[in-house]
Amino acid sequence: MLKIFIMEDNPQQLAHYTELVREICKKFHENEIELTTCRSTEEMLAVMPEASADNVFIFDIDINSNKRAGLQLSQVIRNRDRLAQIIFITVHDEFLYTTYKYRVTALDFIAKDRGNIRQELSIDLKRIIHEHKKRNSTPVFTYKSYNQTSTIPLDDICYFASNKENSHASTIHTVDHQAIQIHQNLREIEKQDSRFFRAHRGYLINPRQVRKVDFYYRKADFYNSDSCPISQRHARKLLQLIKEDE
User: Fold this and answer.
1) Could you tell me which InterPro entries the record lists for this protein (predicted)?
2) Which of 48, 54, 107, 142 has the least CB density, counted as fewest CB within 10 Å?
3) For residue 163, what is the domain's CATH number?
């Protein structure tokens, strides 16, 4: 779900932007949005969500007569959320270069006084909605950590390794060499998701990320240069799965 946050200190403009965003999202068939409105930076910071590419922040640079409040807010947002989209709607286009100095990487800088806010906002939200739908059509694996449920794209996973110290846990090894501890053992994962293959008693493999099955050394080599052991009796079945996926 897209989470859109709009901040504007003028109540009439805030209502106008809110209605615009709703109309544009409806136009592009994005009905599942969570829309939050704020009148000050304090309100915005109080409702800041967890970092996500589905977060969108729309606000002015000049907030309550402070011409740099929006820039300062955007810097805080960017420090907390590297993935979020930031859109400025302002009369202060002289601060365009300053946004680069603040390292906030804004998606757009819409001028209030040029009468094309609807058009520009429509272009921006169309792009955001397209990326959101593309992300959410990507196959994912849902896992349990110790205090929450999270998802990870299927193609980001190389394999799962059992946890020798905790029979109720295991570790996800990812394509970018992360090791994510999860509160599920291999048997539970295998039962939950048939896309993974039990190639060894202590390992569950994502066949989509296997580059080569090494029969001599009895191991699976992954595209990211990692490898993990496989049992002799499961090696041919793994190779068959890889060929079926090609």
Assistant:
1) CheY-like_superfamily, LytR-like, LytTR_DNA-bd_dom, Sig_transdc_resp-reg_receiver
2) 142
3) 2.40.50.1020
Task: State the distance between the two ends of the chain, measured CA to CA, in whole angstroms.
Answer: 32
pTM confidence score: 0.56
Phi, psi for residue 70 in degrees, rounded to 5:
-65, -40
Give me 176's structure tokens.
């970018």
One-letter amino acid at 244 equals: E
Tens-digit pLDDT profile for the chain (246 aa)?
Answer: 899 999 999 999 999 999 999 999 999 888 889 999 999 999 999 999 998 989 999 998 888 878 778 888 888 998 898 889 999 887 756 555 555 555 556 778 787 777 789 999 999 999 999 888 877 777 889 998 877 888 899 999 999 999 999 999 999 999 999 999 999 999 999 999 999 999 999 999 999 999 999 999 999 999 999 999 999 989 999 998 887 765
